[in-house]
Amino acid sequence: MKAPEIAILNFELGELFARAALQLMDGMQSNNCDAIGSHGHTICHLPNENVTLQIGESAVIAARTGVTTIADFRVADMAEGGQGAPLIPYVDWCLLRSRSTPRIIQNIGGIANCTLLPANCELSEIRAWDTGPGNMVLDECVRIFTGGEKQFDDGGVLASQGKADEIWLRELLKHPYFARIPPISCGREEFGAEYSARFVADGKKRGLSTFDILATATKLTTESIAHAYETHASQLLQSNNCEIILGGGGAFNPVMKEMLQARLAPHRVLTHEDLGIRSDAKEAIAFAILAHETLNSVATNVPSVTGARRSVVSGKIARGANDFSSQKLDAD
Description:
By secondary structure, this protein is of the alpha/beta class. The protein contains 13 helices and 10 strands.
């Protein structure tokens, strides 16, 4: 993609995000809406080169909605030598830490990432990183096999009809990413469309059925998650009462959840719903919190997670008609 195309797409996506925000506001006056927190859409994330790019122009969102918009949450951390990801550990610490129970908060979106929350932990004690592919490989394989008719394995129905190739799986887990030591983050550069196309081709060469390939893709996610815990979170797993809290699209895939539970027993695998938080609302809640903290000059990157040299206030502020220049949100 050339620079003019990226620039055009940045503004067009900003317009689409603004329309979505206006629909959600549904006639609400802009002065009754405090702020909008926008993740944007990541089109390039190269943490080892300290480069990232999210598009969806926040100034356009602020102009169309009249609401101050906070976006571009990764770059401040990366400017301080961090990975710029994961973005959510601060939110996990605010919402989900327990005084008595160690927890691992496991998001399974396109990429899978975890946050380690020892019982009654301080912010400086948490760790988090991307464990590898979440639904990214599985979703792309489904699109390939169905010619784009299906975008994901709804309910794990397709994978449930196959059997994972355990020998191939051991080979897949030799991917260089799984040998890296946190802080680490990954993206489509490692496990995107190109990887998935090779995955399908290799599965066919091995004589596997469509369902077997999808079962193997599903288990690649769960095995890479378990591998990450055993390699980098063994101390937390020493307690038999550790809780793994699933979020993201993977939380709605019963086959994926069952594979993970079987792999991590006796630890309990729960979902955000078990703690009173909707999984499909978690990201929206998270960026509302991050935007709130940015407006109050609260640092939300976590150097123990990202590897940044220091804590920084994340996010860039595009002022809307409800300008916050003379006031701040109540930090309480």
